[in-house]
Amino acid sequence: MEIKIKLNGEERLLDKALDIASLFLMLELSAENLIVELNRELLHKNKYEQTILKNGDELELIKFAGGG
Q1: Degrees (nearest 5) of the Cα angle 52, 62, 33?
Q2: What are the domain boundaries of the chain?
Q3: What is the pLDDT of residues 4-63, one digit of tens each?
Q4: Span 3-63: which CATH code?
Q5: Number of C-alpha atoms within 13 angstroms, CB side, residue 63?
Q6: How many Å apart are CA 14 and CA 1, to the nearest integer?
Q7: CA 65 to chain centre
Q8: Quick one: three-class SS letters along the chain?
Q9: Dihedral angle computed from the Cα positions of residues 31, 61, 38 and 67, in that order, rounded to the nearest 10 degrees
Q10: Backbone phi and psi for residue 58, each to the nearest 5 degrees, phi listed first
């Protein structure tokens, strides 16, 4: 079943419902330096594998970098 999400402001079609961790694999991203906001709420890293994206979800991936 195809689902439509909004990823960083752009609509995207997924072939099937994925969890956040699987989406990172598909996009070849590391969760290490990312903050995830799902439907305007921050999502803790320990929930990435349990959170299944649904049709209409809005996902913001924010990359952070340390410095000094």
Answers
A1: 90
A2: 3-63
A3: 999 999 999 999 999 999 999 999 988 888 899 999 999 999 999 999 999 999 999 998
A4: 3.10.20.30
A5: 5
A6: 9
A7: 18
A8: CCEEEEECCEEEEECCCCEHHHHHHHHCCCHHHEEEEECCEEECHHHCCCCECCCCCEEEEEECCCCC
A9: 70
A10: -115, 125
Residue corresponding to tokens 């994925």? 18
Tokens of 59: 């996902």
